[in-house]
From TrEMBL:
The name this protein goes by in its record: Substrate-binding domain-containing protein
Residues spanning the membrane: 6-25
InterPro entries, sorted: Peripla_BP_I (IPR028082), SBP_2_dom (IPR025997)
Family, similarity comment: Belongs to the bacterial solute-binding protein 2 family.
PANTHER family: D-ALLOSE-BINDING PERIPLASMIC PROTEIN-RELATED
Amino acid sequence: MSNRKWSFGLIVLVLIFGYVLLRFFSSTVKVDDLVQQMEQNNTENTSIKHVVLIAQELDNPFWREMQQGADEAAAKLGMKIDYMGPIRIHPPEQMKLLEKSIAARPDAILVQGINDPDYDLLIGKAIDQGIPVITVDADEPGSRRLAYVGTDNREAGIQMGKLLVKDADGSGRIGVMIGSELADNQRLRLEGFRSIISAAPGFEIVDVRSSNISRIGAAKQAEAMLSERSGIDIIVGFSALDAAGILEGVKAARKEAVRIYGFDDLETTRKSIAQGEVMASIVQQPREMGAQSIHLLDQLFKGKKLSAQHFIDTYILDREQMEFGGSGR
């Protein structure tokens, strides 16, 4: 009886061993097949250039538009875009993604400037490894990036200032909302805006606050601004979420007579302009930024030298233009 049990146990062990061996052999074959497929793909796709686009915030509409523009241009020029970014705005995460991207050795990298010396060093590291870097949306002028593609942010601030002075009745106490005190593009927009307002008699900037690129932050800061500073009759927002947030803050403070000016053309901003709640917005063209960046890389890959700055025009979007179906471009 015991011999039978031993024999049965031995048979079971042999079967189990055979099954494990078969699975191992099958797995090895599959791995070999995958390796062959990867080698074949690499051989077939040597002409395809892989470009990494690192967004400030992964699902932000502005960056999704830029991705679309880059994808469309890449499809025509034999490139592939690998799009990535933090779930929420977080510059340290952008730095980590840049570092990981360099390690992956793509053919080029598109990044937003974040005005950080360590970031400059990473860009230099990429250049040293033969990976071209182009900044988009915000520049990193102190780095070794090859080119910047985006808005002339100081000029956009000037454009906002001229628009406001033209619209107002010769005077105005102005509150300003910037997206971030650290962002170079926000600093330049404010600088350009100040240059116009300071030269316009009857106009005064009485408060400048940061929304932290958040609609909720803009709403809270706008409400606080109106309660703490008397006589503000105009509030200007310089990042995409500011106009919607400022509008909420104005309503919470029961100061509906305040005139609001925004930046970019999110759907909420467009609706508020159509309803007369926001006066106008200075609109960037992120899709064109993405496309232009890819066209520049195409020139670079063909041996052409790039100029350092490539500005994409902004335009004014107001109620009149929307009613007549125009974009102001």
